[in-house]
Structure formats: C-alpha cells, structure tokens
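Encode chain A's predicted structure.
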Amino acid sequence: MPPDQPERIIRAYLSGKDSPEGRAYFEHWARKLYQDEKFIASLSEQQLQRLEEKLLAGINRRIDQAEAPQTSLPKPLRPSWRWAAVAASLTLLLVAGGRLYRAERFFPVRYAEIAATAAGITRVKLPDGSRVQLPRGSRLRYPEHFLGRPQREVILSGEAYFQVAKNPEKAFVVTTRQAKVKVLGTRFNVKEITRDSSVVVAVEEGRVAFGAVEGGEPENALLTANTVGVLTRGGQVSRVNEEVSNYLSWMNGRIAFRNASLPVVARQLERVYGVAVILADPALSQYTVTLNMGRNQLPDVLNLLTASLNLSYTIQGNAVTLRKP
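Encoded structure for chain A:
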C-alpha cells in the first residue's frame, strides 16, 4: 500500500465517502488520539495542517447537519467517544470561535470515578501519565482525557498522594470540598479532615499553590518541597512544623511517624483502620509521637502508642478514646 493511502482514505471518509475501509482507518486513528495526548505533539507541521483541515471539515459538516432545518422529525444525535476525542483535539490545534463552542456542546467529556473501598492502596494512572495512590475511603473523579482542556483538573474526596507528570503548558489542579491545589509537576499528598473541615497538603517535591476553593485561583500560599500547609474552615492557610514523611507512611504499609503531633497520628489511624480516634483531653494535642512499625492489628498499634506516651485507651464500637491514666 502506498504510504499516503491511509491518509487519502481518511480524507475521503471525512469528505462524506462513507466506506467500511474509511471508517476503519478513521476509528483506528481516533482511538489512538484519544488514548495518547502526546500524539498531537509527534506530528509534523504539515501533518498538523492536514489534520486540522480534515477534522474541522468533519466536525463542521456534522454540526451543520444537526442544525439544518428539518422537514421531518430529526434523527437523534448520538455522538460517540471517538468524536468527543476529535472535538477536544481541535482546541490543541488552536481552532477557536463559535464553531468550537458548538462542537463541545455536542461532544461532552466523560468522567471516571475511582472509589477506594478495599483495604490497602488503590493505584490510578491518569490520562496524562500522572499517578495517584488512594487509601481506603477516598474517591477520585477525573476526565477520561485532558485534551482541549485549559488545565488538568481532578476532584478528590478523602486523601491521595499525587505524582504529577510535568507539563509547563497545562497546570494540574486538585479540587476538594474546601481547597484547591495547583501544580505543574510535583509529588504531594492531599488530605481532607472532615471533622473540622480542614485540608492538609504535604509537599514532597516541587512547589504547589494552595488555597480555598471559593477564592478562585489558589494563590493564598505557595508551598515548597518538604513543607506542610493546613487550610482551616475560615479559608486561611498556615504552614505547620511537621515532617512531610508523617503524611506519607500510609503508602508504604507501615505506621511510621517522626515527631508527629498526636492529632496527626490520630487522623492517620482513622484512615488506615476505619475508626474514630478521640482525644479525651485537649492537652493531648501537644504530645508528639515517634513510631515505626508494620501495619499490625489496631490493638497492637494502640498498645505501643499508649505505652510510649504513658496513656491509656478504650475501644467502644467503632471509637477509640485516648486519655491520661
């Protein structure tokens, strides 16, 4: 087959010549674009120009057919995921204006949602190559592709550790109920604490902008590597004197803390073991913990923890209470 034969077949298909061969070539190409955001960057200038012309013509023809006056009842429009990928790719090719807006109306982006319900860690690879780890009880919602979107935005409920693929042209944004975290490429942990409506961000590598979700762009605080920030219910961000590693040990299958405040330890035990940990005395918030052990049964962890702090504990139902003896 001549090298340009597939291109001629695809061009004919987009021009209205609906053949099984043309459909097969086009659908193969669209699937590749949908799965690989870097595909566009691999094309030459000549290929990009041809691609833009063919795609725009195909999209415009379908839009015009959908908007044309009907003498009879119109057939329902059934956009496929392949055409959603095509419409999204036009933004990467800088096809702007009313046509693009109308195309996006016809081809909405689909979202995936991952719920970490099982014990252990749920690992997710996002369409841009970023990797996420979720502990039990957390949820992550994200678009099936980031093509044509101004930023790479995901929605988190609970806690997650992110290894973000670098892309200086497109920021990565994590949105929770209270906070928004914006980065270009870094490693960090985000943790919602529903009890007091706060959010904790621990940055292992790189820099992140961190602020309240109501404030639009998260410019309240800039966190650098090896720093921890907390956003409180009032929308203020403050840095706390905590080791970043205290917020990352859950990924390694260990209960490990170094000079961590007791409330931090309590929240981590809640996440790992699915219990509520109550500090009976406000003074216990000043206690610090250094501990490193395997993820044993909860009573084993509590025995070691309370012995090191000279505390006692009781378990009633799903609640653990720590108190002075």
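Residues 72-107 have pLDDT under 50 and may be disordered.
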